[in-house]
């Protein structure tokens, strides 16, 4: 199968029951650095797959309840492979996952596919979904995919954000305009305040962002993502 508009619709339909979305398409020019397909040839296009708000949480939670081991040590990564792997096989595509080293540049792909830019937290901010979205996989094709009619946002929400609450809310001052201080964040998360605060209720700086508040993850999902961080 190739990545024509018709086939993108088939992929979109296969993702829907799992609360996953086709987030965008990147086409690589001839000679441009591109990821390598399973047949060792360079990909001509990458189709990005992800969640919008907590869209994946109901399907993922059902899947976990159906498993004796609740999905094992990295359940979201395992679920993503369980769901996206067969869709890749059906589409004749190579699948990549954000958690698999060597890390594929998911955020660079998303910047191209969706016109997004990074927030001070390092996470890409979307003008509608804010910081409440992520990427669960990507499909690589040997032929260019039909370019999605994704609106290319020209405005980066952080440029218009006067108060920048994400920069002042972090108790560890880990979120700065120029860089995200991972060790400072991790040290705080190991303290009793961090355990009772961010680790239990989610990153305070992320929650302080006013953009896309309607897409904020639920408490269970926030706790799950924080618990997945290795301290
Ligand atoms: C390593 C990693 C981390 C490290 C960051 C270490 C560092 N300083 O780079 C740690 C473990 C700290 C981390 C944390 C988080 N991460 Co992270 N992380 C990754 C991972 C696996 C690889 C990034 C990378 O190096 N890629 C390789 C380079 C070549 O690709 P790239 O696209 O050019 O890389 C960009 C990133 O490195 C980014 N970047 C640079 N510094 C930082 C720092 C942070 C914290 C982040 C998130 C990104 C980031 O800028 C690069 C240029 O575009 C990606 C998945 C992936 N494969 O990209 C997820 C990813 C970037 N993480 C993600 C998320 C959501 C988080 C968390 C919010 C998770 C959570 N708790 O909910 C937290 C951040 C908040 C917090 N309080 O910690 C999402 C971002 C989605 C988005 N909307 O953009 C990704 C894409 C995973 C996914 N499945 O969607 N992460
Ligand atoms: S609070 Fe403002 S600066 Fe921070 S991520 Fe949200 S929009 Fe960007
Ligand atoms: S998780 Fe807590 S300590 Fe880490 S960046 Fe977010 S607010 Fe700061």
Give a short summary of the structure:
The chain contains 10 helices and 6 strands. It has 231 residues and is α+β, with helices and mostly antiparallel strands.
Describe the structure in your own words:
By secondary structure, the protein is an alpha+beta fold. It folds into 2 domains: about 5-140, no CATH class; about 155-230, no CATH class. Helices cover about 35% and strands about 15% of the residues. It has 10 helices and 6 strands; from the N terminus they run αββααβαβββαααααα. The strands form 2 sheets. Strands 1-2-6-3 form a 4-stranded antiparallel sheet, sandwiched between helices. A two-stranded antiparallel sheet has the order 4-5. A hairpin with a 5-residue loop joins strand 4 and strand 5. Helix 1 packs antiparallel against helix 3 (about 75-90). The longest helix has 17 residues, at about 75-90. The chain binds cobalamin and iron/sulfur cluster (2 copies). Cobalamin (B12) binds near residues 104, 118, 182 and 203. This is Ferredoxin.
């Amino acid at each position: 199968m190739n990545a024509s508009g018709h086939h993108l619709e088939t992929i979109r339909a296969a993702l829907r029951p799992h609360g996953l979305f086709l987030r965008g398409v990147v086409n690589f020019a001839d000679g441009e650095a591109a990821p390598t397909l399973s047949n060792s040839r360079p990909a001509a296009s990458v189709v990005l797959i992800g969640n919008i708000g907590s869209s994946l949480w109901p399907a993922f939670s059902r899947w976990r309840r159906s498993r004796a081991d609740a999905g094992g040590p990295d359940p979201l990564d395992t679920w993503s492979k369980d769901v996206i792997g067969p869709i890749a096989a059906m589409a004749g595509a190579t699948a990549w996952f954000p958690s698999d080293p060597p890390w594929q540049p998911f955020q660079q792909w998303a910047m191209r596919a969706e016109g997004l830019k990074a927030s001070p937290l390092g996470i890409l901010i979307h003008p509608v979904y804010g910081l409440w979205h992520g990427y669960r996989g990507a499909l690589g094709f040997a032929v260019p995919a039909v370019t999605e009619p994704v609106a290319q946002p020209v405005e980066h929400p952080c440029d218009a954000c006067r108060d920048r609450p994400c920069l002042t809310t972090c108790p560890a001052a880990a979120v700065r305009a120029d860089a995200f201080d991972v060790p400072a964040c991790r040290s705080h998360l190991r303290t009793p305040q961090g355990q009772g605060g961010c680790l239990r209720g989610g990153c305070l700086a992320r929650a302080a962002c006013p953009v896309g508040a309607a897409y904020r993850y639920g408490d269970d999902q926030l706790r799950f993502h924080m618990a997945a961080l290795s301290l």
